[in-house]
Amino acid sequence: MNMDPKINERTDDELVLLFKSGSSDAFEELVYRYKNSLYQYIMAMVQDEGAAGDLFQEVFISLFKHADKYEPRGKFKSWLFLTARNRVLNFFRDRDKLASLDQTDEEGNAFLHDTLPDGQPSLLEELAGRETEEEIRRASLELPARQREMLYLRQYMSFKEIAQLLDRPLGTVLADCHRAVKKMQRILAEEQPAAREVTL
Known about the structure:
The chain has helices at 12-20, 24-46, 49-66, 76-94, 123-128, 133-141, 145-154, 159-166, 170-191. The protein is mostly helical. The chain has two domains: 7-94, RNA polymerase sigma factor, region 2, helix turn helix motif (Rna Polymerase Sigma Factor, Chain: A); 101-200, Arc Repressor Mutant, subunit A. InterPro entries: RNA_pol_sigma-70-like, RNA_pol_sigma-70_dom, RNA_pol_sigma70_r2, RNA_pol_sigma70_r4_t2, RNA_pol_sigma_r2, RNA_pol_sigma_r3/r4-like, WH-like_DNA-bd_sf.
């Protein structure tokens, strides 16, 4: 089959439909489109390069085998990340150390008045120019798993998409992200005496 010269201009749903029709180029484009964001999300959760690589491959093997089950409704990204999240949960269950991603932390409810709307730079994007990648990674490891997950998802999804993916109320997602931001600020301020304001 000849390479579609505009394959990278296709929507996710169009690519899935092309793949269902036998286009390997469409599948390769989907992998290329999401490989970085998906791997970073999985790695952030499992903190093991070998396991992250295995889980990443499992997600796309599942897509390859079960693409026919996907209903093209413009939510492929959420479908893909949900598949990845289920793989992560299985990874922890299989090792009898399920880190409760639904666990709340000790900080209680937070006010949401300074949470920025969708379309603003994410926390990790804001930090990228201020801290090294290693400093950000170390700081994120001090967050509860639930909050760390929120921050990494926020790089690629709107708050509404995250709420749908995790099957949680939008307000809960906003509160969790807000708490994560504040905790990251404190962690980084302790490491760097001059505290900086960071937005979500």
